[in-house]
Amino acid sequence: xxxxxxLSSLILTAAFAAGCAAQTKxxxxxxxxxxxxxxxxxxxxxxxATAAPKGVKKIVxxxxxxxxxxxxxxxKGNLTGYDVELVKEIDKRLPEYEFELKxxxxxxxxxSLETNxxxxxxxxxxxxxxxxxxxxxxxxxxxxxxxKIIVHKDNxxxxxxxxxxxxxxxVTATSNAAVLAEKYNKEHxxxxxxxxxxxxxxxxxxxxxxxxxxxxxxxxAIDFVNKSVDAQLKTVGEPLSNSKVYFILxxxxxxxxxxxxxxxxxxxxxxxxxxxxxxxxxxxYTVGS
Length: 289
Known about the structure:
8 helices; single chain; ten-stranded mixed beta sheet
């Protein structure tokens, strides 16, 4: 059996699509890296990552720990979620590779890929033109990501993105939600006050406290945070996008891309992908992907 490794970098984080982490760890299963409620970095002895067996290529996969149901720390301190478990499944099916998950703040993922610190990103990454110019997407989508406006449950004045004129909309820097908001603002002259969350800021808490009006997320993420931390949020309006989700690689990673696509197709074909989606997201969001 291949040894599955998880590495963590000590970086603070916030918002729905960001990542945080702890000190470096190595584990054959998911490690204990922090508290799901606080998403704080834990303190533990650092372990050296084991070298891949001879003839097996080590692949470092960038992800986060603060995206509910996608890549997060559970109540037992384990890194898990839809994207994390899918990466583990792909790793099982590609004996020529050994995958390491490395967690970091979301806004650092693309830079880490560009500077060869990681080999691909697993964090519900959607396609946009800026990303396509710099990076390589695999061909086989593994998810459909329905972006919607989210507000406090008692907010009855905001029913869609058009009701956010002059209001504060929180997005994570470099996220596709930020791209969507910027594009909509420009094309519709909506006058939304787009605010980019920084380290230590939590969109769901800021909305609950009345310090912000809205953000962008998915129904499955909101269902999770409402249940786990009583975020008191709801989604409103039609989806801003139903984007297909892919892994992002460097442009020189054609062979790895091909292998990942083969594995994802097999995982779809035998029903494993649909089961993972239903388990973590509450429904089969792989339909049509």
